[in-house]
């Protein structure tokens, strides 16, 4: 899948400041079409209504976590191909393994910088 | 019962056994009753003293525990100290959020500004930078608030430790209340651990290796 700066991106995080940070970083990277959701279930609703080129999701949210969202996305044939990057403070090996097994495309541990976000997005679309 | 009285009773019983075939005299019976009464009286007197001593120790212990429970000041902790610490933490969350928003607003405004007139652009940037410096003052206030919360936690620790020592409390093996069990199950189910402390969790480079599959042994262990 080629990297397209006009593709819609969905940022999922229950912390508005983090959404704002990611939105600004994405803007600097040239991505202007950014939507947001406060948890997995809201994200799933938005994904079923609009086709996104990339999902960037936090893990720790209520009621539906980013990990549960990832499993739902990979289990839904109409959404399963959507690139998915986890951006989270959950840095334990068990979390990374679980996400990898569930089909995450890349994994960023918080706090992170613009370069890390860029390199992970590039890596996802280079595959 | 003291050994002397037991011996006396044994002697009387022996005499009675010897006279089993003949009649026991009234004098023997009276002396038996007298010795028995005397022995039992001494026995119950010693028993009273022992029980009294035990009860006094229990009463003293209860008294000490009342003092220790009073010193624990559980009501002060639950009604004043802990709620106050919670309010401080809420204020910390609020002030860091406000500061983050102010800083981001400044950064966004500077990035969106057009540098057509260099003089006005410079004045605008300097003005935003001053707002940015002011916003950073949250660190001083949050530092003071965190010190108050830490002080409360230390006070609670000190009181609980004092009480545990006074009551010679031992930790119950693997004790968790219903709320703790529910939280732990929730954490396990959703794999939610929260931010790791320094030295715990994985840095980005290790996560990159895990994601790229460069550490297949880790995955083999979890199959």
Describe this structure as you would to a colleague.
The complex is a heterodimer of chains A (127) and B (223). In chain A, 44% of the residues lie in helices and 17% in strands. Chain A has 127 residues and is of the alpha/beta class. Chain A has one domain (9-90, 97-126): 3-Layer(aba) Sandwich (Rossmann fold). In chain A, strand 1 (9-12), helix 1 and strand 2 (34-37) form a beta-alpha-beta unit. By secondary structure, chain B is an all-alpha fold. Chain B folds into two domains: 3-69; 74-169. Helix content of chain B is 79%, strand content 0%. In chain B, helix 3 packs antiparallel against helix 5. The two termini of chain B are 71 Å apart. The chains are: A alpha/beta (127), B mainly alpha (223). Chains A and B meet through helix 1, helix 4 and strand 5 of A and helix 3 and helix 7 of B.
Q: Gist?
A:
With 127 residues, chain A is α/β, with parallel strands linked by helices.
Note the main attributes of this structure.
heterodimer, A: 127 residues, alpha/beta, Rossmann fold, 5-stranded parallel β-sheet, 5 helices, 5 strands, B: 223 residues, mainly alpha, 2 domains, 8 helices, 79% helix, elongated
């Amino acid at each position: 899948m080629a990297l397209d700066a006009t593709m819609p991106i969905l940022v999922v995080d229950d912390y508005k400041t983090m959404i704002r940070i990611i939105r600004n970083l994405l803007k600097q990277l040239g991505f202007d079409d950014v939507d947001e959701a406060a948890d997995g279930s809201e994200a799933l609703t938005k994904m079923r209504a609009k086709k996104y080129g990339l999902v960037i999701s936090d893990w720790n949210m209520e009621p539906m976590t980013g990990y549960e969202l990832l499993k739902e996305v990979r289990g839904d044939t109409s959404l399963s191909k959507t690139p998915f990057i986890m951006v989270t403070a959950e840095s334990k090996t068990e979390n990374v393994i679980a996400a990898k097994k569930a089909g995450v495309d890349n994994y960023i541990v918080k706090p992170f910088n613009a370069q890390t976000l860029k390199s992970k997005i590039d890596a996802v679309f280079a595959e | 019962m003291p050994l002397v009285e037991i011996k006396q009773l044994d002697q009387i019983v022996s005499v009675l056994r010897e006279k089993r075939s003949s009649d026991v005299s009234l004098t023997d019976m009276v002396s038996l009753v007298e010795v028995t009464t005397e022995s039992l009286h001494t026995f119950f007197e010693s028993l009273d003293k022992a029980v009294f001593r035990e009860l006094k120790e229990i009463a003293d212990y209860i008294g000490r525990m009342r003092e220790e429970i009073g010193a624990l000041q559980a009501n002060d902790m639950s009604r004043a100290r802990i709620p106050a610490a919670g309010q401080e933490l809420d204020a910390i969350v609020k002030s860091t959020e406000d500061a983050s928003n102010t800083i981001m607003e400044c950064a966004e405004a500077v990035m969106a500004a057009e540098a057509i007139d260099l003089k006005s652009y410079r004045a605008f940037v300097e003005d935003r930078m001053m707002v940015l410096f002011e916003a950073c003052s949250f660190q001083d206030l949050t530092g003071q608030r965190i010190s108050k919360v830490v002080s409360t936690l230390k006070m609670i620790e000190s009181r609980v430790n004092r009480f545990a020592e006074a009551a010679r409390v031992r930790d119950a093996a693997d004790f968790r209340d219903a709320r703790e069990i529910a939280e732990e199950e929730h954490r396990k189910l959703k794999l939610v651990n929260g931010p790791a402390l320094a030295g715990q969790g994985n840095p980005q480079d290790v996560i990159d290796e895990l994601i790229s599959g460069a550490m297949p042994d880790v995955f083999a262990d979890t199959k």
